[in-house]
Amino acid sequence: MIAPRTDAAPLPPVGASGSGRRAALLRAIAAAAALALAGCDDKATAQGQAAPPAPTVTVVTLAPQQVALQTVLPGRTTPFQTAEIRPQVGGVVRERLFREGEQVTAGQPLFQIDPAPYRASLASAEATLARAQAALESARVTVSRYRPLVAQNAVSRLDYETAVATQKSAEADVASGRAAVETARINLGYTRVTSPIAGRTGRSSVTVGALVTADQGTSLLTVTQLDPIYVDVTQPTAAVLRLRRDLESGKLRRDANDNAEVRLLLEDGTEYPEAGTLQFSEVTVSTDTNTVTLRAQFPNPQGMLMPGMFVRARLEQGQAQSALLVPQQGVTRNPRGQPVALVVQADGTVASRTLEIGQAIGNKWLVEGGLQEGDRVIVEGTQRVRPGAKPQLREMSAQAFDQQVAEEAQRAIQVRGG
């Protein structure tokens, strides 16, 4: 119920003159007109508050460009060869013939175990062999003497056969003596512990004066070959199959030996100067995770790569001549997890597009479907508009937007650092 206004013009009293009544009626009409105008002003004010200005969004117009297509695989470096050095004879370590961390060659001496007991064993074996050789010579002379005499019945056949058996026994003793000498010589050589491979030495687990035993469980030292070096990357089997198809179809760059060429990005973002090759022959499949370990091989002449480093292997796939790249800021996910982008159509309204995106190239996505040349993609203000809305547009070139993003990132780093 509307309350009456107290400021309305009063009605003329009963019995007033005609001119007075007309004047009072005019005042009442004027008051009613004023009330009507006030009501219109209130409605206009309400309508103005209900219609705020259209939001402003930033759009980038897509244009085809030439880009280098790459596949980036995270992985870790592993040694080309690793040798755990263990003694093959026991004894006391007399010398350590290397410096920890230095480069050694194959066959280079590393430790010297006390050789004196093994020299004595060799001398004893040589003496035993000499005695056996002398006995063999005596047995041969006896047999050579008995052979003509047994034909003349001057020597019994039993004595002759005994002499022949003695000769054969002496021959066996000589063979055994020679084997003993060779064994003693080998054991003497084992007192000088050498490296089986070329590589870099690690930390020694023994010092001079330590007692070691043959084939002990603890290694004396580990030698690691780092040139060349492996990079192991783990990928789902589907990704490996795609890499194989790309290699067979020629999409991946190959070296002179028909292997896929690989570049390496280090953990600090710099590129390793040497190119490597992807070794598809070095493949193992994990039945637990359904993943495949691929192995790439890189030259490492300066020893820059060390075992256990996190790296990214980059496979060059050639050039795409007319690729569409959309800034990652303009791509979101719908409730079903599909990538979507908001575009401004020719009539100025916003529309949603479901995308097919490929690999990330810098801070952009490679568009494989859903967008086309000339589309205006909203890259800022996507949360302020919905499909069907008509926003105000702030158009930027792709280069200008990239520069803006880089400057904002730099300011954020400075704020965190300060």
UniProtKB/TrEMBL annotation:
Principal subcellular localisation of the protein: other
NCBIfam families with a match to the protein in the record: RND_mfp
UniProt GO molecular function: transmembrane transporter activity
Family assignment from sequence similarity: Belongs to the membrane fusion protein (MFP) (TC 8.A.1) family.
Location of the Multidrug resistance protein MdtA-like beta-barrel domain: 228-318
Domain spans labelled Multidrug resistance protein MdtA-like alpha-helical hairpin: 122-191
Protein name, per record: Membrane fusion protein, multidrug efflux system
Residue span(s) of domain Multidrug resistance protein MdtA-like C-terminal permuted SH3: 323-384
One Gene Ontology cellular component: plasma membrane
Extent of the signal sequence: none
Organism this protein belongs to: Muricoccus roseus
Segments forming domain Multidrug resistance protein MdtA-like barrel-sandwich hybrid: 82-224
GO biological process, one term: response to antibiotic
Subcellular location: Cell envelope
Superkingdom of this protein's organism: Bacteria
